[in-house]
Amino acid sequence: MIARLLAVAVVIALGALAACSDAPRPSSTVDAAIDAAIDMAPDPCARCGASQLCVARYDGVCQATVVCVNRTVDCPGNMCSPACRSAYCGAEYYQCETRTRCGSEPPLAFTCYGP
Asked: What's the pTM?
């Protein structure tokens, strides 16, 4: 009698376990938002301090170097000007004027484009 009750209990437990593992997980917008946040690459400009400017320098074939540099010239809204270009783009062949974008520009970066 005890063996029979034990066998029934084991069958019920295994059935419940199988039912739980086969049940599809309902999708949730919360889960999707969490997954998207985990999958996103971190913004390289987030590491820059308040007195620094994030500068993304592109070499002409969309290979970038992103650096945090001390602010020496004010460039409101990362607008390109001769002073900003000279201060943050470095070598004379870099420019910050409107160019064909590479698509990987960090949204908060001052961008410089090479030859």
From this structure: 0.61
